[in-house]
Amino acid sequence: MFLLALSNSTAFAQQLHFSQYFNTPLLINPANTGFNPDYDYRFGGSYRNQWANIMTNPYKTMNLWGDAQLFTERIESGWAGIGGTLYKDQAGSGNLTSTQGYLSLAYHQMLGNSSLLSLGFSGGIVSTQIDVSKLVFDNWNYNSQSFYTGNLNNINSNSSHFDLQVGLNYALFASNTAYYNVGISAMHLNKPKENFLVSTNNESQSVPIRTNLFLNANFKIEDLWILNPNLYFSNSARKNEILLGINANRNLSGDGIKQLIFGLYYRSNDALIPMLGYQLNDTKVSISYDVTTSALGAFNHAKGGYELSIMKNGSYKKDRPIKCPSMRF
Q1: Could you tell me which of 84, 87, 91 has the C-alpha nearest to residue 67?
Q2: What are the sequence ranges of the domains in the chain?
Q3: What is the arithmetic mean of pLDDT over 262-274?
Q4: pLDDT over 70 for what percent of the chain?
Q5: Is CATH 3.40.50.720 correct for 30-132+150-314?
């Protein structure tokens, strides 16, 4: 039985996250929209299942996204990007479900021949539902046979709001074997209200701004390896998430058509995350597993959860011009 406590009769928005955050670029930063110099478009999806061995209804998070470049032939030293994302997160005996859909726009401007500055915005609708009939509250009484149900007339089963995000990216193509990237974004910029109670106006119901920061680098080694160390930091309501690690692409075919991907990450005070993937042509599939390292490991036997990701890149023309340097085999 799942007991949901509504502090001050308020429920806060679920914060979606993935261990393979680099495979959900529009979720992390809207300035990533169209930030794909080698290709005209890309699309992907992720699925995450967490804590299945300790929850009757574990966390299930799904993400579908896609973006494309615009005006590449009209703008000499830059281009625009357009994209869309759809997220769904569900967990608990009350089937607490958050569905989010966003449209994002970005502009990418070359600064000389070796760096790129990007600015992006996204806006969308967030809808949250809960099945109140499956929940038990602490102010209800039990008579050894059943619960006396309380008054649910002042509780809504759904809540929706508009959400706004903004992001900034900077990329430096230092050489044909070294690339650096830093980005920062703010989510819930308009501090939307989310609650399940009728006629409430409490300021604590505002969804807090979430700030994301990532640092990323690529290093090519003798056309055999591309090493990608990266760091992700997120802060919301004075709570931090830190994820750092490295993944490496091994060129199996000599021309980069076939690549094997290895990775190892650590989420601070939470989990160790090994990753394995394979890339064929322009399609990449990867899977990771969260091995719990926190105190929760004593209850879930270190079984945090798995995550599956797929991404596809594409171009409209075979010999498309590339406006800035790239890091490929």
Answers
A1: 84
A2: 30-132+150-314
A3: 94
A4: 82
A5: no
